[in-house]
Amino acid sequence: MKTYAMTGGASGIGAAIKQCLLDAGHELIVVDIANADINADLSSAEGRHSAIASIIAAAPSGLDGFIACAGVGSHVPKLPLIAAVNYFGTTELVEGLRESLAQKNGAVVLISSNSAPMDTNQGYVDALLAGDKAAVEAQLEGMEGQTVYSGSKQGVARWMRRNTAEYAAQGIRMNAVAPGYTETPMTAAVKEDPNYGDAIRQFVATIPVGRPGLPEDMAKAVSFLMSEDAAFICGSVLFVDGGHDAMMRPDQF
């Protein structure tokens, strides 16, 4: 049995990851905005600091792994919330838990997206990677939700790649899963949004394997990357998207 912590375990992909790890007999500390082991608002610096301190207190002997799954979708009208939860709610928690993870040579899996490689506002992504929250706010002016979302997920993947070697030197493996369209309450809300619904339905129809993803598809990928079977996988972005990334970007890998 191992001791893992995760964010975003209340529904969708996070709930499936939680159940998968619990079914395997692991101990799990779940952080979410409500109805979790640790309730914290990851959109605020105070909430992130509180989550980190509470996780460390709950696992004084260290963590075997951490999964950063909390996130909000492109339909959220408050654009700074997307950047705050998706990017800073991921990277700052990993940084805050780094020593706890090093105690047990832990594994980290971040949830990115197959939209991460899409063209986005590079000034926005650069501001995220620099940790410059004022510059992030400035870049958000005039942006639209999907670009803010995809940029936040690109930032997560690039942050992971940039920090892989340094973390590995402490015995911490970091990887990311990049889900494609997955049927969750969050994507259902986007699908019903009058601005995005038609485009989403057309997008789903083009998935090469012929169906949308299920939360369990993502949970199995995360569980594998956390396991000893993935001991030599480090710094990778695993696309779990039914072939969509290969179809859309066949010459990029």
Task: Order the strands across the largest sheet as they lie in space.
Answer: 3-2-1-4-5-6-7
Supply Rg. 17 Å
N-to-C SSE string, H for helix and E for strand: EHEEHEHHEHHHEHHHEH
Helix content: 40-55%
Would you kindly provide a written description of the structure presented here, covering whatever features stand out?
The protein has one domain (3-182, 214-242): NAD(P)-binding Rossmann-like Domain (Rossmann fold), CATH 3.40.50.720. Helices cover 49% and strands 13% of the residues. The protein has eleven helices and seven strands. It has helices at residues 12-23, 45-58, 79-96, 98-102, 122-130, 133-139, 145-168, 185-192, 197-205, 215-226, 244-248; strands at 3-7, 27-32, 38-39, 65-68, 107-111, 173-179, 237-240. The protein has a seven-stranded parallel sheet, with helices on both faces. Helix 1 (12-23) links the parallel strand 1 and strand 2. It starts with a strand and ends in a 5-residue tail after the last helix.
Key traits:
globular; 49% helix; Rossmann fold; alpha/beta; 253 residues; single chain; seven-stranded parallel sheet
Q: What is the gist of this entry?
A:
With 253 residues, the chain is an alpha/beta fold. It has helices at 12-23, 45-58, 79-96, 98-102, 122-130, 133-139, 145-168, 185-192, 197-205, 215-226, 244-248, and strands spanning 3-7, 27-32, 38-39, 65-68, 107-111, 173-179, 237-240.
Give the secondary structure arrangement, pairings included.
Blueprint: E1 3-7, H1 12-23, E2 27-32, E3 38-39, H2 45-58, E4 65-68, H3 79-96, H4 98-102, E5 107-111, H5 122-130, H6 133-139, H7 145-168, E6 173-179, H8 185-192, H9 197-205, H10 215-226, E7 237-240, H11 244-248
Parallel strand pairs: 1-2, 1-4, 2-3, 4-5, 5-6, 6-7
Helix pairs in contact: 1-10, 2-3, 3-7, 5-6, 5-7
